[in-house]
Amino acid sequence: MNRTSFEKIKNNRFFQAFVISAIILSAFLVGVSTYNIPPQAIVFIYILDTLITIFFVIEICIRFFAEDKKLHFFKNGWNIFDSLIVIISIIPIGPNSSILVLRLLRIFRVLRLISAIPELKELIEALLKSIKRVFYVSLLLFIIIYVYASFGSILFGQSDPQRWGDLGISMITLVQVLTLSSWENVMLPMQEKFWWAWIYFYSFVAIGSITILNLIIAVLVDVITKQK
């Protein structure tokens, strides 16, 4: 077969759909293997897993031979990503293997869905491009948490040392408030002792949970929009 034939197979919609189906089936087998299943089923899963691994090797070879210049294959980060996962999958494990590390390595094949689905690739690429901007937003969020944690430790430290005893504990408490997970359980005890405590908590939620987190989302949306 010449390069054109491999390229046609690579770009074939049915072949791409089959690759995605194989990845999903591989993920399904990983999940099934965590249950208590009969020995016959374990052997069947092992055989099916081996066939999927062989198919993945063939698929990577097709993509490699479809390149006009073979070195260009390794200039694409997604090709390297997929190749590493396939190489990891080649590591042999028997149907009754109890080697934890080798079994865990099989799970990484699920990550190939990212490279197989264009929309997921765009999302990950957008995330990588937005790291610098998100870092500065996260730094701003850290400063806000630091300032509020310092105030919280000074204001509430003696009343509730388990949550506000020092700066470190106060920061952990504010992270819980930031997630809006049962944050009222943190605020209400202080509200009973200090009538003005609601100002502290409401202002932090407004600035931290709503404004800053929405700003991170805005950065990601902006990057994704510019990609299109």
Task: List key phrases describing it.
single chain; 228 residues; mainly alpha; Four Helix Bundle (Hemerythrin (Met), subunit A); Helix Hairpins; 2 domains; 13 helices; 80% helix; elongated
Description:
It is built from 13 helices and no strands. It is an all-alpha fold and 228 residues long. Helix 1 packs across helix 3. It is elongated and about 80 Å long. The mean pLDDT is 82.
Per CATH, the architecture of the largest domain is Up-down Bundle
* Major β-sheet annotation: none
Number of strands: 0
- In CATH terms, the superfamily of the largest domain is Voltage-gated potassium channels. Chain C
Distance between the termini: 36 Å
**Protein structure class:** mainly alpha
CATH class of the largest domain: Mainly Alpha
**Structural domains: how many:** 2
CATH topology of the largest domain: Four Helix Bundle (Hemerythrin (Met), subunit A)
What's the short story on this structure?
80% of the residues lie in helices and 0% in strands. It has helices spanning 3-11, 13-32, 39-65, 70-73, 77-90, 100-107, 112-116, 118-129, 131-156, 161-164, 167-178, 184-193, 197-227.
